[in-house]
């Protein structure tokens, strides 16, 4: 009901004051109320406010406009205009028009000026041309200029009012800022009154300075308010025959349309400027909050935080640098970041820095040994990400450096544990295979080596007769008896169960065969005690293959395994060479 009453009053005033040629009103702001209501309310509220404003439009048109015959079609056209604008804004604006962003403003202007009033203007011009003496083209121009201007001038401030921005501004703005805003608006109102009522010369340019000043100092709310002040004072003066536009020859309708053009340009100057400033102000606030969080984290973090320029110069170092790397933060600023890195690792750290700059969205992680070491610090991890300017271009990186010496130590200890078979002391399967892979590469460069695959004969019967405890003793004793027959560069590994492998380096297959025979005799010559007075004689079968630098690890193991299989089927306790 309130929306309907206000709409009726706004429509009636427009019809009574601006139907200069007996057709459509030259000035129309009533639809701005309906557009603001639709844009700031839930869609469930739409039918009620549309009905109220539609009835108000019909009554005002019947009483003060083109009469009862035009009441229903004009009401439908007014509603159609408002619905087109509201629907498009709801579709393409993330929040609502009252947020004051550039995107919201541009979408609103485009929706109002292009589809809404071009389409609605055609319907209104058809009705006016049918019921009045004004022709179709003039009627369309009257509708378009009046409705676009009314929408541009009043919708933003009404949307802000309905969304509660005006009340929030009153509550949250400091008194000094309020007085400044009111003072600027008062000055603007006085200048506007002087230009339109008192000035003897056309001085519209005087309005630009206070208009821009209000946009800068007060923002979107102030810009919208200043445009409304200009519309009210300037519009009243122009309609009454005062102001610089009345110096232009033509009808009062034409002068009113000329004023509307000036008002539209004033809107397009102040509102986008205020929206841009509003966005920059929000961005600045976000940057301040982000900077405060960053400083709090950097100042109290155990990790070293560095800001490094594009060319690798340290611009900031957190206080933890003194404790972590033994350097005062101030002594690092202005120096190349690479001085913190051991010369052997600098190339990798520099590559990570360049990758961070080339791929701003990605995080780069690199491990390095420090060149400047505090107590116990021998390995560091650096996590780097690019910092961007407002154009999205990298201006440097922020890096966190943390001590990972303990992690590296644990990693090395685990590797040592994983590299040794806990029962026999031989290399574990993966450690032996890694050595085999390295030896294959050495042979490809001209070295010599052989792979001996060994399987203890009848080991299952040992477990079945004496138990797994004795079996484990046999396995560990077996490796102990093999070691004296190996040279310094040779390696023995347990591949699984009772299967072992020996890597004989720097030898060809003939000498490797002799080594195998010697090992076989050494093992069988020494019996292993089992239970009480029982002893066990251990023998093994073996398959031997020479590394050729071309075959891969799997191929060599398969060839040695086939030779071992032939040894087992040849009576065991013997060696067979790979085919």
Automatic annotation (TrEMBL):
Q: Boundaries of each GGDEF domain copy? A: 447-579
The portions of this protein that span the membrane are: 45-64, 70-93, 105-131, 143-162, 182-201, 221-245, 257-275
**Signal sequence annotation:** none
Enzyme class, UniProt record, top EC level: transferase
Q: Which GO terms describe its biological process?
A: cell adhesion involved in single-species biofilm formation; negative regulation of bacterial-type flagellum-dependent cell motility
Q: What is the top-level taxon of the source organism? A: Bacteria
Which GO cellular component terms, listed alphabetically, does the Swiss-Prot or TrEMBL entry include? plasma membrane
Instruction: Give the record's keywords alphabetically.
Output: Cell membrane, Membrane, Transmembrane, Transmembrane helix
What's the protein called, per UniProt? diguanylate cyclase
